[in-house]
Here is the input.
Amino acid sequence: MPEGTPPTVLVVGGGAAGRACAQELRRSRLAGSIQIVDAEPGGPIDRTLLDKALLPGLLTREQIALPPIEEVAVTAGEAMAADFDTRTVELCDGRRLTADAVVIASGAVPRSLNGISVPSHVRLHRLHTADDVEALQESIPQAVGRRVAVIGAGFSGTELASHYVAAGAEVVLVGRSVLPLEAALGTEISPRLAALLRERTDLRLGTTVQAIASCGARARLSLSDGSSVEVDAVIVAHGSVPATAWTGSPEGIRVDDRLRTGERGWYAAGSAAYMVSDGMRLTTDHWNAAIAQGEHAARTILHDFLGAEDPGPYRPTTGFNLRAFGSTISVRGLRSPSGSERAAVWPTEPAHPNAMLTEFVDAHGVVTGVAGFNAGPALAQAASSIV
Ligand SMILES: Cc1cc2nc3c(=O)[nH]c(=O)nc-3n(C[C@H](O)[C@H](O)[C@H](O)COP(=O)(O)OP(=O)(O)OC[C@H]3O[C@@H](n4cnc5c(N)ncnc54)[C@H](O)[C@@H]3O)c2cc1C
Here is the structure.
């Protein structure tokens, strides 16, 4: 195509990253056509609201739908295969979509419990779509007096545990790691989260599920520490895997610091993408990071096709807030696995008596992230030092 001609863009996945990419392209007044193809039943949603608003009945399915973007067509369909040479995406229904630039933003799906046989009438729940929420609501219409096993003591597992405890259930929380979310929160804040979880749930850290059997209407979980527990419902929430099998790369799409995949005209953003830094794989499965990456990919497309300003390398400065049992645990930026952490200087007086604020620094002493436990607005101020 002649230089300076506006490219046509196809975005696979209309969630956080894909929608942000399309919106940024439209904002820049890109004249070429922009099409999103998305497989979410009922259309793209704000996934963060599944456990916080749809599950407790605060919002409806329609209210968690992502709003349309003017002049961006959203086609319902599931990508099945990719032809990188012709920049063509084949959908399950046989349609073939081709564009000058293709953005892979198909997100991630929950990791399943592999290698464990499950009796046919024991239903393992997960929380990824609005249909999953409905299934959970049907299975546990009244939480009071019920016992719920949540497998996975990470972000989703912790929020689910908090929800069911608040609703009156007894929660057995099973986590493989000895400390929850230690890789993201660091060695100071992760133990605080563990203490909080221990107070409010039947916490089994450093443990995995070895077998699941049925026990009347209940399920019996046998754990690797030799114990077993009977529960009314089982929710599997132990991480996610990239939803990128359709590209031929089920492990996710490696991108450079501009979100280019290395295949001409192909980009990736959000949970589908990963970067490699200092030989380590960096993924950020958070809403705001997915948006930031989608926008960055859009600016790279404008640079590559129309000579717009180079957006420079993408640097993760966004993060997440985890709200559980009345506390807020927050991270901004990243904890470099080869770096270290130190107590941060409070920019203002801590608002909460047991508040904590830590900084993550890389091998050169550069601040790459901050984490807070009930740190309040001080977190945002501390995060301004992230380079
Ligand atoms: C229950 C839950 C709660 C969460 N809470 C938080 C939170 O509080 N804060 C936070 O920061 N993060 C949270 N997250 C994580 C956050 O939702 C993700 O990080 C974010 O959605 C990633 O954005 P994405 O665009 O990569 O993927 P998504 O937003 O999932 O979008 C991917 C889209 O691609 C579509 N798709 C998948 N495969 C195909 C295909 N083959 N063809 C076409 N379309 C396809 C999907 O249907 C989906 O619409 C939560 C996640 C879950 C599951």
About this structure: DSSP finds seven helices and 26 strands in the chain. The CA atoms of residues 255 and 261 lie 5 Å apart.
